[in-house]
Protein 1
Amino acid sequence: MNERSLFAAHALLPTGWARDVELSWNAQGVLTEVKTDAACPAGTLQAAGPLLPGMPNLHSHAFQRAMGGLTEYRGAAQDSFWNWRSLMYRFAAAITPEQLEAIATGLYVEMLEAGYTSVCEFHYLHHDHNGRPYADDAALSMCLLLAAARAGMGLTLLPVLYQTSGFGAAPPSEGQRRFIRSTDNMLALLHKLQPLCQAQGARLGLAPHSLRAVPPGSLRDALAGLHAMDATAPVHIHIAEQTAEVDACLAWSGQRPVQWLLDHAPVDGRWCLVHATHMSAEESAHAARTGAVAGLCPSTEANLGDGIFDAGSWLAAGGRWGVGSDSHTCVNAAEELMLLEYTQRLATRQRNVLATTEQPSVATAMTLAAVAGGAQASARPVAGLAVGQQADMVALDAGHPLLRDLPTPEAMLSAHVFASHRQSALQQVWVRGRLLVQSGRHALHDSALSGGVAARQQLLKNTP
């Protein structure tokens, strides 16, 4: 059997659905040929059903997967993001490098089984429990690199610059002690990590945590240092997630967060504006025109009560977007798409909001947009089933009870996103041409998930 080729009766290419598609890739896992209306060559593996591009996950805090289900109770008269953050800080204060690696490995296996084939890791745990650097200052970053390598997950590593607890250079709190780095120290870390990422095929970027956590001078200097090292490196930032953040930014600067950023930083297509939930129409139009990607995390934004992204204003200005699982209350690519569409339906009281004129099937339109935006935010060649892109692919199960005998691949994808249990219809997943998930399961499913559970048990014993 030819191990570097695949035949699919239906495949979702960047231009839309195509029939009888033969895909070939090289030893590096990069697609070298995508032929349509082809005959299936003898000895070529056939996809189990409609073939999709792998979904990039553009926003992840891996360690938070171990918190799942532990914050769903009301501890205050009005529970909010800020109450949740206090609990998250306690969790972050206790985790060890070994636990982080185990939790991340289990998470990345889950992601692969759920249709994600690459992840942008927004990584802000840097130091030991007392806020002191480890003997190897890159120790916790290395845990994530090792976890991704073991699972086979594509990775964009985004070490987080975090210096203050609020606008106006408010000093960091005790709960933030493991996050804090000087700008020079962050740039030294990036220089150390760059060859390690390159050796693994991972991409390295920078994540200024937020405007409240990085003073203007530090933001300017960090971006200049990153640009000198790699002018194409991605930059991700949390912004306008909470109305309290917007109010605090207005009090500090007289401007809303996105407008301040656009006026004071070189925002362009390298940037991912994570959440960007609370923008004015003017901010939305201006930000979209820069070419930046909106990093939307519908399940986490709903879980934390953030609000609903105004997709109408963003898309009217030509804005690009992708999806992430953020705190991992949900690890499922199709579910993020479903939640994004459903919140837009609730906000607008319309249906099929994110369909386009070119792609009236909303699941198809959303998949193509999320893959393109996620690839841009990842700064990796994962933009779909096209020559020069990685052979990152997901095959649905054409024999699944809710997909079987549907008339078109568009209908099968729609059933996967809106009418199945979502993950249950995923059959095969390839990353760089390597078949990592077969019959819906990763080869490391049992060991990796058990390791994550054991790490969580240890962590809970040591969390105050």
Protein 2
Amino acid sequence: MTDVIVAGAGPTGLALACELAQAGVGTLVVERLPEPLRQTKGGALQPRTQELFAERGLLEPLRARSVPTEAAGGHFAMLPVPLDCTVWDTAHPHTLAVPQWEVEEVLAERAVALGATVLRDTPVTAVEQDGDGGVTVTAGGRRLTARYLAACDGAHSTVRKLLGVPFPGRAGTFTAVLADVTLSSVSDLVPAGIGHISTLTREAGGHWVMLAPLGGGRYRFTGGTADGGGQDKGRPVTFEEVAHALRVVYGEQTVLAAMESASRFGDATRQVEAYRVGSVFFAGDAAHIHPPFGGQGLNLGVQDAVSLGGKLAAVLRGGAPSDLLDTYHAERHPVGAWTLHITQAQRALAHPNPGPDVVELRRFLTELLRGPEANKQLAGLMSGLSRPYDLA
């Protein structure tokens, strides 16, 4: 028997493994994918997440893998006003652009170095909780036992489904494409560097595209159509689909040479009602999903992991009472709920085909954010700096 089984080797699961292993807690990570998915996906580390990583000696390895960017502020709903975090007491007032697979690689290396075990190609197929407070997980044909199980296995969490845990919320209204692409030629409309997000997004011909340069002719492509693109997220992304969007938005001179790791995503909003179910805890996208606005997802999951890891370590190695674990839900569920609120608001404001009322609301908020007090408040919410953490 081990202390904790972690389902999922994404940023949340691996950050949790680092927290637990650092404290000497026996940790086993099981992951269904045989190899890491080398896709940029989430790539913005917010100031609060950088503080947490710096405290653990992880920020410099991540900084070494970061994509060069301008020192631009964050954003709310892609409005053209940078959110200024320099007014907060932090050594890291700007977001750090690191592709998600690079974050996972750094965390995996640290977790294993600290003593955690990571088993890939090991999908969870059954979860059983016993009356004594333990849990048995069947994964990759093995029966594994532990004191606790942490479900960090993403938006389509197998653990959540096996336990029949409800995932209430709002269904998605649009789908869009995310892909890592290489361009053989570009027009003058293609951004040459990563600045404020409002400079990276263009709309034309019923399409919208955000291109983030990654260097060497590579870009992170995010795009869709003004009508929402339908709801079939399972449709394969085709080369011509992305090539056409690039031509429409950036001109015929912008030519797609290669596409890799393409996928679709939506804007569904859901959250489990309880982050703890017996000996099982939910974190990251297994606990909450929301529209991808403002660079919140990866950061919210990592911060879940820091909270849960500290509490599990205190109980398993520090002699703290077991009811400390109940405070994980009390601490993190409200933060997740608030993140769902602010991402849904951004989704409405950033609609690629806004009605006249939304246009006026965008104008009003743009002027409001030019004021220091409103800017500071939203900068603190979006960066996480307004939420206190015990870094010790």
Protein 3
Amino acid sequence: MSTASLQRPALRTLRDLPGPRPWPLVGNVFQVSLHRMHQNLADWADEHGPFFRVQLGGFKILVVTDAELIGQLLRDRPDTFRRPSRMQAIMREMGIPDGVFMAEGETWSRQRRMVMASFAPQQVRAYFPSLLRVAHRLKQRWQRAAREQQQGAPGLDLQAELMRFTVDAIAGLAFGTEVDTLGSDDDVIQRHLDKIFPAIWRRAHAVFPYWQHVRLPADRALDDSMRVVNAAIRRFIDEGRVRLQDPSRRASPPNLLEAMIVAADEPDSGMTDEDVAGNVFTMLLAGEDTTATSLSWMLDLLWRHPTALARARAEVDRELGELGDWEAEDLGRLTWLEACIHESMRLKPVGPFNVVEALKDTVVGDVAIRARTPVLLLMRHDTLRDDIFPQAASFMPERWFTEHTELAPANAKRVSMPFGSGPRICPGRFLALLEIKLAAAMILKHFDLVGIDTPDGLPPQEHMALTMVPVGLRLRLRERVSAREGFDAA
């Protein structure tokens, strides 16, 4: 035996790892709360270290907390790891066709090229006039709400309000369809979409697939929601095909949906209407929930940190004129607001953990795992470590400026990965950041935040339902007298 062989560290297996003691048959499934699973996992990481095992039902899972290794595993997709096959099966069973989020193999590669081009930074900037119209509708809606609150109306449901904004934005940009949930009380699509994310989460973690045998009222309501959303998607596609009868439009599709239809119509494209529908569904789900949730968390953090809020407002007043005159390049000057976005995503990522599945026998760190083993990546572990981010629990946007290197590592954006990493990084990240910055700037420019309240007066609870959402935020606001108006009045 060679010296190299003698010095090579022995590999461990899942069986060798520490972890919470499992119960017979069900493992650790009854030791976690479905809606606090991310916090349960974080507590176990503190106890058992950077590699540990859990068993949820029949699944034995490797949990990893080290950000550098997590980044490597995400970069190893799609060759060594994939998204969980169980999640894909559940979404297909619900009637959600594969989009770029869940597709694998050649199907994913084909769809990714098209979707990434549609969400490239220069293309996203071209969407800005449409985004600006949606921001204007949000402003008008909240002006009415502010006047009603002066007459005693309750605060707004912040998460629901921001979801209206993101539904309208993604529908217009991705599908060329005006869905004006902000201008009316007609929130049909949003109301049905809101049932789908939680259902995916519940079914993915169910010990037994009861819905395959017994249909409860919630399952029947989900079926109804799926029918409504799928009908809307079919309508989007049909309307897109009608618009594409214009040869000039077909030559230069102005939105994601029409680009996908043109790509699917190419000879030997391998794309079908099901591929198109899957990506429409993906963009509706992801574009509505994650962006609105990130914006909700940031506004709450700013409200709880008045100095940071005042600096953000001063920057908006200094850099931006009237809303109708804004351009995408203007928002690029809002460096403090952008730092607030990065800091809120570090503290409150919508995805505090991610799950991948091994496509073949492989090694993670010093742990040998078999093909199909799930690997759970605790994305929010190292971002909350004081030895990596000093005063890690504090909201300190200044840590994202280069002159404050003592507050964050040089590779901070490789430790905090709210959009993932590697080949399957979120293709809509530039659009999401632009939406968040635009909505936040509009709010700061035109409204005073009178209060962002929770039922118990404490910081909002984190509720896990595929994404991590704040619970019970109610917004009280009033119309702001701008610096210009105040000068004129004087």
Protein 4
Amino acid sequence: MDDKILSIYLDDRLPTPLYIQLFVQLKSLIAEGVLKPNEKLPPIRKLARQLGVNTITVAHAYKKLESEGLAYSVVGSGTYVASPSRYEPQLQRQEEDEHLQMMEKGQVQVSKDAINFASTTPTPDLFPVDSFKILINKVLDRDKGQAFGYHQIQGYQPLRESICHYLEKFSIKVLTDDVHVISGAQQGIDIISKALIEYGDCVFVESPTYRGALEAFKSRGARIVEIPIQEDGIDLEKLEEMLSVYHPKFIYVMPYFQNPTGYSYSYSKKEQILQMARQHKTFIVEDDSLSELSFTKEQPLPLKAFDAYQVVIYIKSFSKIFMPGLRLGFMVVPQALRSRVISAKHTTDISTSGLIQRTFDLYLRENIWQEHIEYMRQKYKKRYETFLKAVKESFPVSVKYKAPGGGLHVWFELPPGYNDQEVYARCLKKGVLIAPGSLFYHQTHDTRHFRLSFAAVNSEKIRDGIRAMGEVLHQYVEQEATLAPSSQEYSPLL
């Protein structure tokens, strides 16, 4: 065994925790067959001594191997490599989740005939190619080679100034130094995780929530506490109960058109969660990528607009309403965290693309961005109306949902006794892709929900896809459910 671990190398200069480095390398040795099924791993103290690390590092790495089904422990004996029969079902489930996550982001090539309600990535016909081409040429003519140089870690200064002016429209007043340009919301979540989370720290999340955030928090060794989300926001009673038990580093929330539920916070809940965060001396990470896509007369105001106590870390992504592949967004960070965030950003990618930053600065300064937002809002509103009309006509009345009034997706609930994975499998056979609800939980306990997004589907395909899904659901759900009075909630657009 000793010669098998000689290839393991841990570097405490890297931002990745040592136990994660060890876990990844042991996992590779298992996958490559170097470590055989049922082979005993070195005792924790012995391996820690050989690698020059704390025994806790090895213990956490072994525990993570066990949690992923790659190892098992025998009381009084030690830790052993699991046989394929032990971990293949779990690995298969992980691969399915990873596939669905990539599909959601539009990173999986699907058949051109498939109807993809799983992806929240806009269709290419909505990308502002013509205006982008004009503005990028303006930048190149104006800035020449400087457009390709490195910028400050916090981002291109003129863009950060433009962002400050842009935020004033949402009643958010911040200083230029509070703004940090990032390569999309996911990077923002990763940076905050690096800056704030140490192994074993507690993090609160809405339940269900965005899978990418869960994975970022897990990669830092965080203890994740799930707080149920209700139709008007997070369950405050449960939140207060958990805050009295734990002291989380932060509470991760999506106050508008939450992913995956589409729910939005009431004004009352926004006020109360801010008060709770201040009282318990914790931060709130607000992930906002869809608040501009409201299809009603209401003008959503981010939680950050009410943040009088500097407890909100505001993450804004433009991916869903601009061009996803450009990877652009920003964070507004309380001054107390500024240096830690800058350090975490530097170890991630030094700085975001200068050319893209300069181009987007012109989008904001020349008000082209507002025109594009309105264009996207009208396009998505049409898809939203088509989607809800098709659902009302095709789905069994026993399948419940709430019309969110904006955003890019709708959350559905099956009757008791029915399974989201079964619906996923049946829809797949019909050439329709959906996102099972169980994908959006830290602990896989939900089996009755699924999310449908109309972002990547045009109006004609929306009708075809929902009609096909309706046939699947009518075949799967009890026939007598279709005779019951309608329990669906449909909110006509104002």
